[in-house]
Design goal:
Blueprint: H1 2-32, H2 41-56, H3 78-91, H4 94-98, H5 101-121, H6 124-135, H7 151-172, H8 175-191, H9 193-209, H10 215-243, H11 254-262, E1 263-265, H12 266-269, H13 279-283, H14 285-297, H15 305-324, E2 326-328, H16 332-356, H17 365-391, H18 405-417, E3 423-424, H19 433-437, H20 467-470, H21 475-481, H22 484-493, E4 498-501, E5 510-516, E6 519-524
Parallel strand pairs: 3-4
Antiparallel strand pairs: 1-2, 4-6, 5-6
Length: 526
C-alpha cells in the first residue's frame, strides 16, 4: 500500500514537470523571437472584439470594433469574445496577459489528453508520451496551433474533453459522461462552431456502432445534440438574414446559406493549402503507419470508436481537398490540426502496440529489439523534426512582429493625445491601433467582406473585389500612390483624422505632428 502511494506521488511530480515543460515549450516562441505581444494578426482582432464588449457593452459588439460607423460583423464566436472580455475585466489589461494564454490552454489540453490516454491504456509512460507528442505539434501562422490563442485553438481543449467523456460513455454506459460530453459540446458551439459541427457525425455514428440502436436511446442523443445546436443556430440565422453572408451568399437565400455552411471550397478557405500542407508528409508517414496499427489493434474497443471515426473523417476530408479542392463542414487547416490531436493519441499507442507484439508471438527477442529500436527512432525523429518545423519555419510562416521600438513610441503618442479618431495606417500595423490606442483604424485586413460595396472604387476596382485579390490588396499602399486629388477622396470616404506612415509623406492635405526614428504621424487638414 505504501509502495503504491509512493509510486503515485512520484508519478504526480513527473507529470507536473512534464506539464511545466509543455508550458515552456508552447511559450518559447516569445523567447525565441524576443517578442512579448500576441504572435498572430487574428489574436489582435480577438482582443479588439473583447475590448469592444467592455467599452461599449455586449449588444454593441455586433458591430466591427475598428470602425466609427456601425458595420455589422459576421461573427459566430461570441462565447470566445465574452471569455476574453471577462479575462480583461479581471486582469485590467489583456495585452500583457495574452502571451501566456496559449501555453496555459495547452497545459489544460495536455491534462485532458493525459486523462484520455491513461483511460485507454492504463499506462503512465504511454500517457506521458501522448502529452509530449501534443506539446511538440507543429505550429505556424497558417495552420495555427498551440502557439496561438484563438477560437479555433482554444476549441481543441473542448474537442479533447468531448472525445474523453463521450468515449467513456460508450465504453462504460455511465450517464454522467454523456451529460458532460453534451455540456462541452454546447460550449464548443459557442466558442468555435466549426469544430462542433464537424464532430457531430462522428459522435452520432459512434453512438450507433456502440449498440445504442433503440429508438429511445437514439432520440435521447439526437434531442440533446439539437439542444446544444440551438444557441449557435439562432445566432447564425439572425446574422445571416440581417446582414447577409460573405462573398456570393445573399441575405435570405436559404440554399446558399446551407451550401456554404457545408461545403468549403478552396476559394472560400482563402489559402490553397493542399500542396503545402497535405497530411501524410506533414505528420510523417511512419507515424501514420503506427496510427493505423493502433486502429487495427483496437477497432473492437468502444473507447476507440470516436478516435477511429475521427481519424477516417479527418483524413477523408484532407483527401477531398487534395483531389477536389473542397472539404465538408469545416475548413482544411482546421481539420488538419484537429487530425493532429487524434494522431497524438493513436501514433504513440501504435508504437506501444508494435513493441508489445513480439511478446505475444513466442517471445521473439530479436524481433522485439528491432521493433523497440524502430519505436525509439520514430519518437526521436518526431521530436527533432517537430522542433525544426516549429522554430525554423520558412520566412512566410514565421510570426510577424507588428510592434517594435520604433512604432511603439508612435503608438504611445497617439494613445496619449487622441481617442476615437480614425487612423489610416499600413495594413498589418492597423490591427493594433484600436486595442492599444482606443482609436479606429480602417484597413482592408479587418474589413468584413460583406461590406465591400461600402468602400468605394478608390480602394477597389471590380477585378480586385474577387476574394483572392482582396486578400493581397493594401489600401494604405494605394493611398501612397495617389495624387492629392485622389487622396482627398480616400480620406473623406472614411473620414480619416490621422495618417501613420513608416516614411515621410509629402502632401498638402496632411499636417505633420510626430516624427521619430523614421516614423511619422500626420493630422488630416479639414
Amino acid at each position: 500500500m505504501a509502495k503504491d502511494l509512493n509510486i503515485k506521488i512520484i508519478q504526480f511530480f513527473v507529470l507536473a514537470v512534464v506539464l511545466i515543460g509543455v508550458f515552456i515549450t508552447v511559450y518559447s516562441p516569445h523567447l525565441y523571437y524576443d517578442y512579448y505581444y500576441p504572435l498572430h494578426y487574428d489574436e489582435w482582432l480577438n482582443i479588439s472584439e473583447a475590448k469592444k464588449i467592455n467599452n461599449d457593452g455586449f449588444f454593441e459588439s455586433v458591430f466591427y470594433p475598428y470602425f466609427k460607423q456601425k458595420i455589422v460583423r459576421m461573427n459566430l464566436v461570441y462565447g470566445f469574445d465574452i471569455f476574453l472580455a471577462v479575462l480583461e475585466s479581471i486582469s485590467g489589461n489583456l495585452i500583457p496577459v495574452y502571451q501566456y494564454l496559449p501555453a496555459a490552454t495547452a497545459v489544460l489540453n495536455a491534462i485532458i489528453l493525459f486523462w484520455l490516454a491513461k483511460t485507454i491504456s492504463k499506462s503512465f509512460i504511454f500517457s506521458l508520451t501522448v502529452v509530449i507528442f501534443f506539446a511538440l505539434l507543429p505550429s505556424n501562422i497558417n495552420i495555427l496551433g498551440n502557439w496561438f490563442f484563438l477560437p479555433s485553438t482554444f476549441s481543441y481543449f473542448f474537442v479533447s474533453a468531448i472525445i474523453l467523456f463521450f468515449s467513456r460513455y460508450l465504453a462504460e454506459e455511465d450517464g454522467k459522461y454523456f451529460f458532460l460530453a453534451v455540456v462541452f459540446l454546447t460550449v464548443l458551439f459557442l466558442v468555435y462552431p466549426l469544430n462542433a459541427v464537424f464532430l457531430l457525425p462522428v459522435l452520432y455514428i459512434a453512438y450507433i456502432l456502440a449498440g445504442k440502436k433503440s429508438p429511445a436511446k437514439q432520440f435521447k442523443l439526437f434531442s440533446l445534440f439539437v439542444i446544444s445546436l440551438v444557441p449557435f443556430l439562432l445566432l447564425f440565422f439572425a446574422l445571416a438574414f440581417k446582414v447577409g453572408l460573405p462573398h456570393e451568399q445573399q441575405s435570405g437565400n436559404l440554399f446558399l446559406i446551407f451550401k456554404n455552411a457545408i461545403v468549403y471550397n478552396s476559394r472560400s478557405q482563402g489559402l490553397l493549402l493542399n500542396d503545402l500542407y497535405f497530411m501524410p508528409p506533414f505528420f510523417y508517414y511512419v507515424l501514420m503507419v503506427f496510427s493505423s496499427v493502433a486502429i487495427v489493434k483496437n477497432y473492437k474497443n468502444k473507447m476507440f470508436y470516436v478516435l477511429n471515426l475521427l481519424f477516417f473523417w479527418s483524413l477523408g476530408n484532407l483527401l477531398l481537398f487534395k483531389m477536389f479542392n473542397f472539404t465538408l463542414l469545416s475548413s482544411y487547416h482546421r481539420i488538419l490540426y484537429l487530425s493532429f490531436i487524434v494522431f497524438c493519441l493513436l501514433a504513440p499507442l501504435g508504437i506501444k502496440n508494435t513493441v508489445e507484439l513480439p511478446g505475444k508471438m513466442k517471445k521473439n527477442i530479436f524481433a522485439g529489439k528491432i521493433l523497440k529500436f524502430m519505436a525509439a527512432a520514430a519518437f526521436i525523429f518526431y521530436i527533432v523534426s517537430s522542433m525544426g518545423k516549429n522554430f525554423f519555419p520558412s520566412d512566410n510562416l514565421k510570426p510577424v512582429k507588428l510592434i517594435d521600438a520604433k512604432n511603439s513610441a508612435m503608438l504611445e503618442f497617439i494613445k496619449e493625445n487622441y481617442s476615437k479618431r480614425v487612423v489610416l495606417a499600413p495594413q498589418l500595423l492597423s490591427v493594433v491601433i484600436y486595442p492599444l490606442t482606443a482609436n479606429f483604424a480602417a484597413s482592408l485586413a479587418n474589413v468584413p467582406f460583406f461590406s465591400l460595396e461600402k468602400r468605394g472604387d478608390y480602394f477597389f476596382s471590380a477585378e480586385k473585389r474577387m476574394f483572392n485579390d482582396i486578400n493581397n490588396y493594401d489600401p494604405f499602399s494605394a493611398f501612397l500612390m495617389q495624387s492629392d486629388e485622389s487622396r482627398k477622396k480616400i480620406l473623406e470616404l472614411y473620414d480619416f483624422d490621422l495618417v501613420y506612415s513608416p516614411g515621410r509623406i509629402d502632401s498638402q492635405l496632411l499636417n505633420p505632428i510626430f516624427a521619430q526614428d523614421g516614423q511619422f504621424v500626420y493630422e488630416v487638414k479639414k
